[in-house]
Design brief:
heterotrimer, A: mainly alpha, 71% helix, C: alpha/beta, Rossmann fold, 6-stranded mixed beta sheet, 4-stranded antiparallel beta sheet, 9 helices, globular
Chain lengths: 351, 300, 236
């Protein structure tokens, strides 16, 4: 069926190939670095997609996990002299410990309350970082040496340093993307989806809410931690305000705009968020914040299931036009934001 | 940054100070509660809307040299109208949408209002004139600023007016009924959508009051209300998210606790926000109906 | 004169069609009963009239077309609908429920008189005004729902199964009140009932619905006498 939403290996390979050759032929220095950030954000959005899109739990607090990841990397490099590549997995693991700690109270919080609590986490995270200034450098932040590649490709001028950052982030993002696809096709993914559809029914079917919800938070935080680590490496600097609530919003908004509960959603979302502020700045000559908010609201009106959901609906509509009456194939459903029962005519224009 | 206590002063002084700053949290918490009661949603843009209103007041007072006492009521009315319009235009299409949609739309408003304040008035920190005299009065050895008394007075007055409105007026009754029983209310001819808009209007007006009270203390910039919003969340959750009395009590409890933590825990200044987060999580876990909340009467 | 007229009304819930073209007429001042088995479309017909379900076809109230209008605007024309489940506002007090019925009226003096009249019909209410409606029994909630609808001073009162879940003696009391409201205040009444026997006793005319369409209609006393109708549609 619709090749964009349920892409076969061929499409994924094509996209990966495109991403691999783009900095060599198409992208300049600065866009290459920008795309290195896109891959980092993509990882964070995959985390949101797993937690919100598949497991149905809202988190506005993933910027705090990105902070854990970013600071883990910065502190290990700056104070302990670690190689930055080794800090990346540690950053993910420490962030996922944070995810478990948040997941435990989150077990008993739903919808609006979970959103409020995680929002409070995101708001308060920068002040905690400032408080432990012996470790974190306080408001000054920590500068780390720029990342050098272990193969000497940059020093031999085969690659620019931006291209190295780009490829490193791309490889990690691709690996984590594949891992998430694999994970979601196992019983874990089925358990997540069951919880999203109905917690009561999931429990009745023997799904342990405590285990799987905590797991979803842990995985989501792991992804955020790796994203934060790459962010720190790309920037060669961390400060408390890099990990403010706006970053959480960017993650959630990107995942939602791309299309929650779809494989390709985070990719569309990551490209969108990085691309949109610069674009809209030229277009409206305003601060990106305003345009960001306006776009978010417009997307909620017109495509509550994101770009991927919108494309899917168009496709389904096209198929119905062609062959009226033929039953729909059992494809992976796109998630209407929030996944709370609501008639289609109020949450958006029906297919 | 925040209302910070001077740790050298006595306990009574800290408590008075805590009650006064708690009153600010209480007033913004009231605004949150008004919207929650109307549509069981939390407006994440509440603080940014209040900041925007406060900037308008600042502009009227500095650029146009208006007096505080003309500006204040005018901005409250403007905010009310703005709140109603916002609901009718922006919120209406998603009134009955799933919860995440609502959250995201109010987060969109958060970005818009924050950006607008910055775009129009810039990110410089401004001083906002206080309507109250600076000199403190002494009550039994405790010095109380008129500023503090004013803050406490205003939030109690707000609470009283809200109470009167909901319990004594027909419109208040209609708003309560529309929120709880939309279909029954429509069958009685109530325009439920407009009742929601009214809720947003009231909430925006209360938020504006809150912003104009807090700005003289914290000084004005586009991020004025973000920390206040966090403590207002804490206050609202502590008091039971749909209970106006609870919101005020919760606000004062939060204010006093923060003052005490500031006094007795060394170097805790930066940890105030986390304190809010921890209280939210603890209350939601162990007393989700809040300290003064109660279960509803229902009969099956 | 016809106060309410439905012509080929079609209504659906999602893809499931509940009404397949219902046509009926309610004469001003009369009591009309709508009978039929579960799922025949009785409740949907009422919901169609007050705009709670999307409809196609023509619905005219007092000569005006009301199909497709919002519920609250239809209510404002003078149609009171006591829905399935009685629409009790259970957290509000008994008095507040009554006040909500009159919330759009601008004649406070007459409203007070109407509340007194309600006490006349339902004397028990006077001593329980401050209680939350949730604490009332099923029969009391039904009476409160009717009283609340009366506070609107409607021209047409729609009642959805006033007898549902109530003891026979309570049902008789409620139907007596319905007849009184009709005769003393001239309110036209359309009621949906499973209990065909008691409904036909009070009603002037009746419609029997079957699978979303009118199967039989006529004067209530003639239908009650017609053995074949009774046997095949009304089950008594």
């Amino acid at each position: 069926m619709h090749s964009l939403l349920k892409p076969g290996p061929a499409l994924w390979l094509f996209l990966l190939l495109l991403a691999a050759i783009a900095p060599l032929y198409v992208l300049g220095r600065f866009p290459t670095l920008e795309w290195a950030y896109v891959w980092a954000l993509l990882i964070g959005m995959i985390g949101i997609n797993i937690l919100t899109g598949y497991c149905g739990q809202i988190s506005l607090g993933n910027s705090a996990f990105m902070a854990i990841g970013g600071y883990t990397t910065a502190i290990l490099i700056y104070r302990a002299g670690w190689n930055y590549l080794l800090t990346i997995p540690v950053a993910g693991v420490l962030a996922s410990v944070g995810g478990v700690l948040l997941g435990i109270p989150a077990l008993r919080l739903r919808g609006i309350y979970l959103a409020t609590a995680t929002f409070a986490l995101a708001i308060s995270a920068p002040s905690v970082i400032r408080h432990f200034d012996q470790l974190s450098g306080g408001s000054q932040g920590i500068s780390i040496p720029p990342a050098e590649d272990p193969f000497g490709l940059v020093s031999s001028q085969s690659l620019t340093s931006e291209q190295w950052l780009y490829y490193m982030a791309l490889v990690i993002a691709a690996a984590l993307f594949l891992f998430s696809r694999a994970l979601l096709s196992t019983h874990v993914g089925r358990a997540f989806r069951a919880i999203r559809e109905s917690e009561t029914a999931a429990v009745a079917n023997g799904v342990s809410l405590a285990y799987y919800k905590t797991l979803a938070f842990a995985i989501s935080a792991f992804y955020a931690g790796v994203a934060g680590s790459l962010y720190a490496i790309n920037t060669a600097y961390v400060s408390p305000d890099s990990f403010n609530v706006g970053l959480s919003l960017a993650l959630v908004v990107g995942a939602v705009i791309g299309g929650l509960g779809t494989g390709i959603g985070p990719i569309l979302g990551a490209a969108f968020t990085v691309w949109s502020p610069t674009y809209t700045q030229i277009l409206f000559n305003t601060k990106p914040d305003i345009a960001f908010g306006v776009l978010l609201i417009l997307v909620m009106y017109t495509m509550p299931s994101g770009i991927a959901g919108g494309v899917y609906r168009l496709w389904a509509w096209y198929r119905r036009q062609r062959a009226a009456g033929r039953p729909k194939s059992g494809e992976e459903g796109t998630v209407q934001v929030g996944k709370v029962a609501s008639p289609p005519e109020v949450s958006g224009p029906g297919p | 940054m925040l209302l910070s206590a001077n740790p050298l002063e006595g306990l009574e002084q800290q408590i008075v100070f805590g009650i006064a700053s708690g009153s600010i949290y209480a007033s913004l918490a009231l605004a949150l509660v008004l919207i929650y009661r109307a549509m069981e949603a939390i407006n994440f843009a509440q603080g940014e809307m209040a900041t925007f209103s406060t900037f308008i007041a600042w502009m009227l007072m500095t650029t146009f040299q208006w007096s505080f006492w003309i500006t204040f009521p005018l901005v409250v009315v403007l905010s009310f109208v703005g709140g109603v319009a916002l609901e009718r235009v922006v919120i209406r299409p998603v009134e009955r949408a799933p919860i995440l949609t609502m959250i995201l739309v109010t987060l969109g408003l958060f970005s818009i209002f924050n950006g607008l304040s910055g775009l129009i008035w810039g990110y410089t920190i401004r001083t906002f004139p206080s309507p109250f005299p600076v000199s403190p009065i002494s009550l039994g050895g405790v010095a109380i600023g008129f500023q503090d008394l004013g803050l406490i007075g205003v939030s109690l007055l707000l609470l009283f007016l809200i109470y009167l409105f909901f319990s004594r007026t027909k419109l208040g009754l209609m708003m309560r009924a529309s929120a709880l029983y939309p279909q029954s209310s429509r069958l009685l001819g109530v325009r439920v959508g407009w009742m929601l808009a009214l809720g947003w209007g009231l909430s925006a007006a209360v938020g504006a009051v809150s912003g104009m009270m807090v700005a003289p203390v914290l000084s004005l910039d586009p991020n004025l209300m973000q920390s206040v919003l966090l403590f207002a969340f804490t206050a609202a959750v502590l008091g039971g998210i749909e209970n106006p009395f609870g919101a005020v009590i919760g606000g004062i409890v939060v204010g006093v606790l923060l003052a005490l933590v500031g006094t007795y825990v060394p170097h805790a200044e930066d940890l105030r926000l986390v304190f809010g987060f921890i209280v939210i999580v603890l209350v939601l876990l162990f007393r989700p109906a809040g300290l003064v909340g109660r279960a509803h009467v229902t009969r099956v | 004169m016809a106060l309410l007229e439905l012509q080929d009304v079609v209504a659906s819930y999602g893809s499931r069609r509940a009404l397949h073209g219902v046509s009926l007429i309610v004469e001003e001042g009369s009591i009309v009963a709508m009978l039929g088995a579960n799922g025949a479309g009785k409740t949907t017909t009422l919901r169609a009239i007050t705009g709670l379900v999307k409809v196609q076809g023509a619905i005219r109230f007092d000569g005006r077309s009301i199909a497709g209008r919002p519920t609250e605007e239809i209510a404002r024309l003078g149609i009171a609908h006591v829905p399935e489940g009685r629409g009790t506002m259970s957290q509000l007090s008994v008095l507040e429920n009554l006040q909500m019925g009159a919330c759009l009226r601008r004649d406070p003096k007459a409203v007070r008189q109407d509340i007194d009249r309600v006490y006349g019909y339902f004397p028990w209410m006077k001593s329980r005004l401050e209680q939350p409606a949730a604490l009332l029994s099923g029969g009391e909630q039904q009476m409160l729902a009717i009283a609340r609808a009366m506070m609107m001073r409607p021209r047409l009162l729609l009642l959805d199964e006033p007898s549902l879940g109530l003891a026979p003696i309570v049902v008789r009391g409620i139907f007596k009140i319905i007849e009184t409201i009709n005769s003393e205040q001239g309110v036209t009444i359309m009621l949906v009932e499973q209990n065909a026997r008691i409904a036909l006793k009070s009603a002037d005319s009746a419609y029997v619905l079957e699978v979303g369409a009118v199967a039989v209609s006529g004067l209530a006393r003639e239908l009650a006498r017609d053995e074949s109708v009774r046997k095949s549609y009304l089950g008594y």
